[in-house]
Specification:
The complex is a heterodimer of chains A (121) and B (206).
Chain A (H helix, E strand, L loop, with lengths): L2 E9 H7 L1 E6 L4 E7 L5 E5 L9 E4 L4 E4 L5 E2 L19 E5 L14 E8 L1
Antiparallel strand pairs in A: 1-9, 2-3, 3-4, 5-6, 6-7, 8-9
Chain B lengths: L5 E10 L3 H9 L4 H4 L3 E9 L3 E9 L6 E10 L4 E8 L2 E13 L2 E11 L8 H30 L53
Antiparallel strand pairs in B: 1-7, 2-3, 3-4, 4-5, 5-6, 6-7
Chain lengths: 121, 206
């Protein structure tokens, strides 16, 4: 049976203020972006651009995820590359908002703490 | 052609990335107008496995002056690349020499030569002041890119794929280093390939 682990990401208050945060987790050996979109939905993806490894950020104005190196655009809903018709997407992460156990994608913000869930190998 | 019409300036810096990562950064033309303030537009007209001809629209540090500048770049050997450009009628030659120090560090020597003939001689004092400032600015704009690129490659990152799916595979494979090859792959209809005179012949990225 696979074990699910949780990692603390951030709080609602910080996300409302900063709009997105980027963190590296040694447990995942990945850098992730947790963001709050215009509709107040939370999402978490890998923030390593699959093109050449640039840093992904959330651009509130355009409501897209973008790469700081080459300005490639990615869908905030699916992580798919929107700049070019190629099969590239950002790796999504499962998460939950505690103490609200209703989870994961597209959950409306009602509580404070956001945790990323991953399967330990 | 007088030798004393040449203004020469040289900078040498060490950095924690491999020689191939440093070279990749010089040949990654897609980042220019995103990362560097001075570049407004950059169009590749032709490139292959050791050279490239590009036309840039750049903003120079005079107020309100934008220039279109042709630029020829060649990977002369595995450690040396030359860049020839013409700005305001001034021909420049940049020699970049990259010496590998360890598998994840190198020394970069940047040598700039400007041929200042005729009226252009009056620009010499100005260029002497501006070139070190410009070099410093560009260096610090590129620095985080080179460092991060080295870090992701050390996590077994693959271009146009990303990190391995399995967490335990996200670490450097022993004795396997990133190998730099030209041309750096670009997607079909890349933002660099939209000039009407551009010749497109690269492999399609799927």
């Amino acid at each position: 049976m696979k074990k699910i682990n949780s990692l603390y990401v951030t709080s609602k208050d910080i996300l409302v203020k900063e709009r997105y945060i980027i963190k590296f987790y040694n447990e995942l050996k990945d850098e992730v972006i947790c963001f709050l979109d215009k509709n107040e939905n939370i999402k978490i993806y890998s923030s390593i651009c699959p093109h050449f490894g640039g840093e992904i950020y959330y651009d509130k104005k355009s409501d897209y995820l973008r790469c700081k190196w080459h300005d490639w655009k990615f869908s905030k809903d699916t992580g798919k590359c929107l700049s070019y018709p190629i099969k590239l997407k950002l790796n999504p992460y499962d998460f939950e908002v505690k103490p609200n156990n209703l989870k994961k994608y597209n959950v409306k913000l009602e509580s404070n703490e956001i945790y990323l869930n991953y399967e330990k190998e | 052609m007088k030798k004393n019409n040449v203004l020469e300036v040289e900078f040498r810096k060490n950095i924690n990335c491999s020689k191939d990562v440093a070279l990749w950064n010089y040949w990654d033309h897609e980042h220019l107008d995103v990362v560097h303030d001075g570049y407004k537009e950059s169009n590749i007209l032709y490139d292959n496995n050791n050279f490239m001809f590009r036309v840039d629209n750049i903003k120079i540090p005079f107020p309100f002056i934008k220039l279109q500048t042709p630029l020829f770049m060649v990977q002369h050997d595995e450690n040396t690349l030359y860049v020839y450009a013409i700005q305001m009628g001034i021909i420049s030659k940049t020699t970049i020499t990259i010496k590998s120090l360890t598998t994840s560090s190198c020394q970069i020597t940047m040598n700039y030569k400007f041929y200042l003939n005729g009226w252009r001689k009056i620009l010499k004092p100005f260029l002497k002041v501006m070139i070190p400032k410009w070099n410093e600015k560009v260096w610090f704009e590129d620095l985080p890119i080179k460092i991060r690129r080295q870090k992701v490659l050390d996590m077994n990152f693959r271009d146009f794929k990303g990190l391995p799916e399995k967490i335990n595979e996200r670490e450097k494979v022993k004795d396997e280093n990133y190998s730099f090859k030209l041309p750096i792959p670009r997607p079909i209809n890349s933002s660099r390939d939209r000039h009407p005179l551009a010749l497109k012949f690269r492999d399609k990225i799927k």
